[in-house]
Amino acid sequence: MLNVAVLIGRLTADPELRYTVSGIAVVNFRLAVDRPFTNREGERDTDFLDIVCWRKLAETVAANLNKGRLVAVKGMVQARNWETAEGERRRTVEIVADEVRFLDWPSDRRGPSKGQDKSSKDADVGDFEDLFEEGFEDEVPF
User: Fold this and answer.
1) Cα dist. 67→22, 54, 98, 113, 126 in Å?
2) pLDDT tens digit string along 41-98?
3) Taking 50 as the threshold, does the pLDDT of residue 27 lie above it?
4) Cβ contact 33:95 at 8 Å
5) How far apart are CA 49 and CA 36, in angstroms?
6) What does the pLDDT look like over 117-126, one tens digit per residue?
7) Could you tell me what percent of the chain has a pLDDT over 90?
8) Residues 6 or more apart from 82 whose CB is under 8 A from it?
9) What is d(CA 12, CA 120) in angstroms, rounded to the nearest whole number?
10) Domains in the chain, start-ordered, CATH in brackets?
11) Range 14-31 average pLDDT
12) Rounded to whole angstroms, how far apart are CA atoms 45 and 47?
């Protein structure tokens, strides 16, 4: 059997990092992914998909991504059922990511986006500026 999802989209909000009782990092974020075809009005519809990352990947995502960033996510589709405290049955479908690739520069174009120490890995952004056309950054669809 095959269960693989590959998505490219933009984060709709900053990732939310938590730790389980046993100390394992987990991060959740929602990804806005445009459909590859247009609707009757000639516009592209957008799907909003929940993404979950665990352990080191979760910490890396939380430290480096924020709302609006363009990423590629590879993982598996997972459906979960649970019951609320009020006795209501709930169901969710999410992508459990095993790989997240950063596809754009942070808004300040200077490395990690949340005040991380950049000195050890800071590349000279000017060396890469010519790789990106003017107007490369799309508008966020939300």
Assistant:
1) 28, 19, 20, 11, 24
2) 988 899 999 999 999 999 999 999 999 999 999 999 999 999 999 999 999 999 999 9
3) yes
4) no
5) 15
6) 433 333 333 3
7) 65
8) 89, 90
9) 29
10) 5-131 (2.40.50.140)
11) 96
12) 7
Give dist(CA 24, CA 18) in Å, integer.
Answer: 8
- pLDDT computed for residue 117 by the predictor: 41
Indicate yes or no: pTM above 0.90.
Answer: no
With tokens 């990804």, the residue in question is 31
Unique residue bearing structure tokens 């998505």: 7
Q: Which of 100, 94, 7 is nearest to 57 (CA)?
A: 100
| Residue pair 63/112 in contact by the 8 Å Cβ criterion | yes
What would the two tokens of residue 34 be?
């445009």
Q: For residue 65, what are its two tokens? A: 């991504």
> Three-state SS for 76?
strand
